[in-house]
Fold:
Amino acid sequence: MKKLKLIVNDVVYELETRPERRLLDVLRDELHLTGTKEGCSEGECGACTVLIDGKPADSCLVLVGQVDGCHITTIEGLSDGNELHTLQQAFIKAGAVQCGYCTPGMILSAKAVLDQNPNPSEEEIRKGLSGNLCRCTGYQKIVDAVRLAAGELSAKTGKGGGN
Amino acid sequence: MSEFSIVGKRAERKDVRSKVLGKALYAGDLYRPGMLHGKALRSEYPHARIISIDTSRAEKLPGVHAVMTHKDIPGINRFGLAILDQPVLADDKVRRMGDAVALVAAETVEIAEEAIRLIKVEYEELPAYFTVEAALAEDALPIHEGGNLLQHTKLRKGNVEEGFAQSDIIVENVYQTQRVDHAYIEPETSVAELDHEGNLTVWSSTQYPFRDRRQIAPVVNMPSNKVRVIQMTTGGAFGGKDDITTEIQAALLAVKTGRPVKVVWSRQESMVCSTKRHPMKIFIKTGATRDGMLMAMEGKIYSDKGAYCSIGHFITKKAGLHLSGPYHIPHIKVDTYAVYTNNTICGPYRGFGILQASFAHESQMDLLAEKLGMSPLEIRLKNALKVGLSNATGQVFEHSVGFYETLKRAEEYMKTHPLEGGVE
Ligand code: FES
Ligand code: FES
Structure:
């Protein structure tokens, strides 16, 4: 057991846990943030994607001891109360959600793409989402959703033109 | 076209908000007070007799609450969607890699996995059959008591000999399809719990709560009205969660321990233990006249069931019923054979056998077109089923068949949207 500090969705958690536990398990079992999903347990499907200090990572491959003191963003941290994040709205509008199991991971990977480049090309979007598998929706509508969100975000901030 | 209130309009899924928020509850998102974790020991052999199972070391491991073998099942040790041919926990023998042999419920997944490793099973290996030919060989041991041929179906329409005699060209081939996994992103998951009145609830990632209940109740030896199955938001299924997966394992352990139990299959278990699309070997002979009219089709389909039926006998039969495709053929003879092997179990997967049949009949159409110097579209338009024509089972369509119009619309569209790289 070890004392660790995680800042998850801007909330500071002081935890006593085994540092070799997977970040995924700590988020789900200890912090009850079950929006982060497990699909393959080996870094293939991306369902467990979270942002660690803004960068996307498969939380099934991260030991919690490695992220002591880090800022973690999970799907629960994207909306502002009941106010959906632009990406969440865009996924709804574009019909990019079917079973929804891949959705939290997809949205976080998409956020990482847009945070880095507010006006990505289709290829850059596809590359940014290449670590996330979806078996229901197919990828076109998901890519459309990210494009839609990019356009709306840049319209909001007045930066970039969207495409 | 008349206006519909929903069809043709954008509609928001009812559950989509909770899904983008990460709030939708899947079975694995349930955490019940005092919940234990269940794991199964899986067979290491595709076909073997079980001589003995020693669970003593596993039982002594701290944190283990229950270790179960077939002897500990309160009710019947069989389940199956259509035929009760699948043991919950292997008794006399295992019939494929991945048959469950024992179950453990423990405080954590890690302890359950450790306990599984401590169970010793002594096997006597039996010859295993991995192809339909091997399973149907005369000297093959029966995988099930009734033998390895689970079902033979016959479809006869008209007189194929006559049909082939009237044909100017005959194309004959063998097509083989492979086993495919559904690979839904959410693995199979159930949580089961007994309440204070002895009612059993199973929350599951499933497709059919009532069929699950029908199969769970006799195994836990409870009347159906004491068993409740709740389908949680399900992370993809595509037919793969039609069958029982984790439901009975969680239910048995919950009944045994009196504690809530969660069972989540690993991705590997999902690959090895869940149903797959049937590999089929399809022998097909198609005859047509010089001007491309189909006259006769004769086919034989051998479908690899794997070790258990699921509803694969229907699927195999259905592949046969659809082997003529969406075309009018006056003379048809098709035989299908559903064969038990020691492979992974096969069951429903989008299309129910029609996909395998399509691969064969559409390939035949292309080859016929090529040999007749006709375009692939033309030969399909000529033979498309229409109102007034009969399908393979002799059913005459009286109201509408959209195939011909669909082909015409596709033709128009393709004229203005050529495929990248072109088509031959
Ligand atoms: S569960 Fe982490 S990548 Fe699939
Ligand atoms: S919506 Fe089901 S996996 Fe993407």
Observations:
- Chain B has a mean pLDDT of 97.
